[in-house]
UniProtKB/TrEMBL annotation:
Keywords, ordered alphabetically: ATP-binding, Kinase, Leucine-rich repeat, Membrane, Nucleotide-binding, Receptor, Repeat, Signal, Transferase, Transmembrane, Transmembrane helix
Positions bound to ATP: 368
Gene3D superfamilies registered for this protein in UniProt: Phosphorylase Kinase, domain 1, Ribonuclease Inhibitor, Transferase(Phosphotransferase) domain 1
Protein name: Probable inactive receptor kinase At2g26730
Cellular component, GO, one term: membrane
Keyword Iron: no
Gene that this sequence comes from: LOC115734710
Residue span(s) of domain Protein kinase: 340-600
Intracellular or extracellular location(s): Membrane
Length: 612
């Protein structure tokens, strides 16, 4: 059942890419040339008179009549790897030569295998250094060079941002480890080499046995900590006579300087005393320079900590705070109260900053400061009032706002439990965020979004910036969408998503952008991976893994080990992939997405209650 679903999914995705071509002669010749070198004396049945795909050459797998995978494992191949002909097979994504007797080095021509995602060379007799060329294989996800006779330093593999597996154990590598981004790696082993130096930050994510057997390696998770940087060497005891004279010279020079300073200070304090009688000009000078360095309102400045939000520019006090909430604690909230209260910066993004402000009555508020919103103040006020009317329990309403020409401040209730982003990517919490909770968060967010969309569709107000950092968690850990309607999406923002750029001809639909954001949230919940570059990287990665039929590997390891129902996870993945369809017209509406997610959740709940 599971395989069938996955296959259906793969077919679904690849229908669009299906182009009927056959493997051309040049590619066939290249493949045979590669085989000659890697397996001297046996062509393993690869022959020019047949077709690699149609006739299913040994170890060759194709998609749409192009060679995708070459898997030649445990065949006692005893030649060498000739990358030049191999990399002429442009479509090649997977190469495995595991468990053979292949010797020699990895040639630098491997850089031409640009589409390689999986390279397994473990358990051979490869030797020499890994070429720098390897670090230019940007699409590489999994690299296994373990159990060989490689030596020398590693190239800077940290450049490959999407790498999830790196195996290099049992070789003779030396030098320091590159600055791997351990947060992205899922499997890692460099045991039994000759590495030295400090394990890069984040290595503690893996266990000791990923690093053992390297005498020179130190730092977490290994028990031996690295030596502190050497302080400057202690002075030698036998200072020679002329050195003593030099030091004596310094001491005397120092004394002169000190005496001179004392003299200066004494003179100045004398002058000051004089100034109280006649020096009016000088006094006004000092007080004006003080006002420049401090804040716009001298009266309240003594109440402000250096962390208060009043670093916002001075023109702000010209219009006042509009309070939307009728909660008694907030009814009389004044702009000045916000300015005076101690504030702590919680975050800072492209469009503004977020502060936590604690009022004198103890109430905590979140204040969002937005720059360059790009809409006139009047429109902004109108939007705020419309949004205040559309209330949903899982959408955080602004309790007050402030708006001047340059700056907008939005005041929300403060939510103590952080954002969905923190919950997913903060290290400690990953374990307790189980599949049932994630599905429920997905359903709640989708439902709240669908509600807001239907309430505000006529006004044309979409969220504009839906992402996990904007989903806050209340005291019961229920999700709450924040910052609804704050971003007036400019079309050029979206042109950063390559697929959208190409479809920019159709009129821009901000509601479908929100659906895209929802899709990314679903992928983030399922994979546990972070969204970067407008989600394009994550989307691309999910597509590539699904395409390679490594679908199981898409899901967050925590969910797999918890034993979450894989069929329902695949269905949620499908909804996510529909939502991020490059063509906005093909995406479901938020209402349709919410219905799909809710039916998956209902099914999950039925199965859990029938289990118990
Ligand atoms: C593997 O090949 C080598 C020579 O290439 C040969 O000596 C050895 O017997 C072969 N091993 C197996 C298991 O076929
Ligand atoms: C490492 O190199 C030494 C000598 O250079 C050699 O004896 C040993 O077999 C090598 N180890 C591995 C795992 O290849
Ligand atoms: C590994 O390489 C070293 C030289 O770099 C060589 O002396 C040694 O014999 C090789 N070991 C194996 C198992 O091939
Ligand atoms: C590790 O490297 C040091 C020098 O860098 C060398 O003396 C030692 O033999 C190496 N050990 C192994 C097991 O290759
Ligand atoms: C890493 O490789 C070493 C040597 O093969 C092995 O003992 C260890 O268990 C491996 N660690 C992991 C995490 O797989």
């Amino acid at each position: 059942m599971r395989r069938a679903t996955i296959r259906a999914l793969a077919i679904l995705i690849f229908l669009a890419f299906r182009v009927a071509t056959s493997v051309d002669e040049g590619t066939k010749q290249s493949m045979i040339q590669f085989m000659d070198k890697v397996s001297p004396g046996s062509d393993q049945g690869w022959s020019l008179s047949t077709d690699p795909c149609a006739d299913q050459w040994k170890g060759v797998e194709c998609e749409s009549q192009s060679v995708k995978r070459i898997v030649l494992e445990e065949l006692n191949l005893s030649g060498t790897l000739d990358a030049s002909p191999l990399c002429r097979v442009q479509s090649l994504a997977v190469l495995s030569l595991k468990g053979n007797n292949v010797a020699g080095g990895i040639p630098k021509e491997i850089a031409n295998c640009k589409h390689l995602t999986h390279l397994y060379l473990g358990g051979n007799r490869f030797s020499g250094q890994l070429p720098d060329a390897l670090s230019r294989l940007n699409n590489l996800k999994r690299l296994d060079v373990s159990d060989n006779n490689f030596s020398g330093p590693l190239p800077n593999l940290a450049r490959i941002s999407g790498m999830i597996t790196f195996f290099a154990q049992n070789n003779n590598f030396t030098g320091e480890l590159p600055q791997f981004d351990f947060a992205n790696l899922e499997h890692f082993n460099v045991s039994d080499n000759n590495f030295t130096g400090q394990i890069p930050d984040g290595g503690g994510r893996f266990q000791e046995n990923s690093f053992l057997g390297n005498l020179g390696l130190c730092g977490s998770p290994l028990p031996n900590s690295c030596p502190a940087p050497q302080p400057a060497k202690k002075k030698q005891k036998d200072v020679s006579l002329d050195k003593i004279f030099i030091y004596l010279g310094y001491v005397i020079l120092g004394l002169i300087v000190v005496l001179f300073l004392v003299y200066k200070i004494a003179r100045r304090s004398k002058k000051k005393e004089d100034g109280f009688d006649g020096g009016k000009n000088r006094r006004s000078d000092t007080s004006s320079s003080k006002a420049n360095g401090a804040l716009s309102e001298p009266k309240t400045s003594e109440n402000r900590s250096e962390y208060s939000i009043t670093s916002v520019e001075s023109g702000m006090t010209t219009s006042s705070l509009v309070v939307l909430s009728d909660a008694p604690a907030l009814r009389d909230l004044k702009f000045e109260d916000l300015l005076r209260a101690p504030a702590e910066q919680l975050g800072r993004g492209k469009h503004g900053s977020l502060y936590k402000v604690v009022l004198s009555n103890g109430l905590a508020l979140a204040v969002k400061r937005i720059k360059d919103l790009g809409i006139p103040s009047e429109d902004f006020k109108g939007r705020m009032r419309k949004m205040d009317r559309a209330k949903h329990p899982h959408v955080l309403p602004p309790v007050a706002f402030y708006c001047s020409k340059q700056e907008k401040l939005l005041v929300y209730e403060y939510k103590p439990n952080g954002s969905l982003f923190n919950l997913l990517h903060g290290m400690q919490n990953a374990q307790i965020f189980d599949w049932g909770s994630r599905l429920s968060v997905a359903a709640t967010v989708a439902e709240a979004l669908a509600f807001m969309h239907s309430e505000l569709r006529e006004d044309g107000i979409a969220h504009g910036n839906l992402k996990t950092t904007n989903i806050l968690l209340d005291k019961d850990m229920d999700p709450c969408i924040s910052e609804y309607g704050l971003m007036v999406v400019k079309t050029q923002d979206y042109s950063q998503i390559p697929e959208i750029r190409s479809s920019a001809a159709s009129p821009h639909d901000a509601f479908k952008d929100d659906v895209y954001g929802l899709g990314l949230i679903l992928l983030e919940l399922l994979t546990g991976k972070m969204v970067q570059n407008n989600g394009y990287d994550l989307a691309k990665w999910v597509h590539s893994v699904v395409r390679e039929e490594w679908t199981g590997e898409v899901f967050d390891g925590v969910l797999i080990s918890e034993g979450a129902d894989e069929e329902r996870m695949v269905r949620l993945l499908q909804v996510g992939l529909q939502c991020i369809n490059p063509s906005p017209a093909e995406r479901p509406s938020s209402r349709q997405a919410a219905a799909l997610i809710s039916s998956i959740k209902d099914e999950e709940e039925r199965s859990v209650s029938s289990d118990s």
